[in-house]
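Q: My collaborator sent me two sequences in one message, no labels, and asked for predicted structures for both. Can we handle them in order? The first one she listed is below.
A: Yes, handling them in the order given. First sequence, followed by its structure tokens:
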Amino acid sequence: MTETPEIVYCRNEDHTESVPAVARLSWPDGRFNPTTACAEDLEMIVSNSLDDGHVVLVEPVAEHESHAYRSYTVTHAIKELVRTHRREVGRDVRAILMEAPDQPYYEQLPETLEERQKLPARFHVPQWTESGTPQLWVCAVCWDEGSVSQWPCQAAAENGGEVFAR
């Protein structure tokens, strides 16, 4: 028996009917709460965040075969966003960070720092910490009670091609 994947919907309250989401969006600086966006809203939301100088993380909603078109849609939307930004602002987007679709949530992380450091390099992505002093980029998985690793951590430095090459 195969499981039917849960459909994630766009959280835009202006939609008159439910529209499947193509991406999860989060802001490392905490400016907005994480949300989901359909293909129609994705470009506008990310563009507005970049225009306001805020980093936004874009994660495809599903990698399941029946939803493979969503990954394509997210990639296509990001390419369109980069073209639009270049045309309107006159310069390239410096970076768009995308977490791995299987990036573990806090509850899913191994218990010890040693186990976290051994996670695949694709999980060792930068995360902005605005609440700390000083404010800095830390590794999303290399932390332990009371300590964090400034990014790039050892795994990211040694395997940088795997961190961003997806």
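Q: And the one she listed second?
A: Here it is, processed independently of the first:
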Amino acid sequence: MKQMKSDLQAFGPVETFFALRGADLRRARDNRCYLALSLFDKSGQINGYLWDDPEESAERLKGVLYVRAQGMAKPHNGNLILSIENIRPARDEEVDLNDLIETVPGGTAFWMKKLLEHVELIEDRNCRALVQSFLDDPKIFEALKVSPAGLSIHHSYAGGLMEHTTNTMSHALYMADKYPALLDKDLLLAGSFLHDMGKLREMLIGATGGYTTEGKLIGHISIGLLMLEEKIRLIKEFPAELSLLIKHMILSHHGSLEFGSPVRPATPEALALHFIENMDAKMNHFYCFLRDVPPDAAWSNYDKSLNTEICMMRFGKETRELQEVK
């Protein structure tokens, strides 16, 4: 049975398999060379450090996706790290990908059903035709089932993009009903469905994650715009104004230039989309972040994404492990 990251104890022995996300040769203050590794399984991520023959190990691990690591778990700045004694590439027959890839809480079938139910609520024929053109594309439909919405910040597991898209559409329905004089429900639903579709081509799908060349060069917002234009060209007499409004929603959904959007939200639907998708991302990040906080901690470590420490007085161990499914 695989020893999961979540089961590791301080000063306990470790001998298990991990997916390898990165391995970097570094220099310590005393000028000694060491190998820093980013290791993970579906229960979490852990940083590993190897001091013996780091250059040889770095060369041996080039291009390797899965490793067998042996060493000891040690506490460091409130988190566990892995002091590695031996590490080697794992053989295919030794690795069970189900141990390495975390999947969306509730399962992919649950979230696909919810997503399709939300799509059914789009009444405008042009918005509906556009969204349906994505779902009718076999590559997109299958990729949605397994794609994450991010590599580390939020929804960073198989099916995470489908969950994030569905939740954004759920919030869009509430917002449209709350502000009917300002928000076009069909436009907001369509934009909510489409806003992160570029991530299907931005990120690699699998245990090790990472970005595609296209993703590294132009990012998911630009890719999403290209995907949108590809589909619109296939829809007869698609309204030019609607096309422009949806493009603006995709381009502005990060809210500002410093966060990756080339333009700021300039329509009610674009502003609403920015708020609701950002809220869903932040709430999911809370869930994922809390799981790695020690059970007896009063405060978490500083979190770069949230720009703060988190007060833990309300969160027991069971609460921290919860992933809400609604």
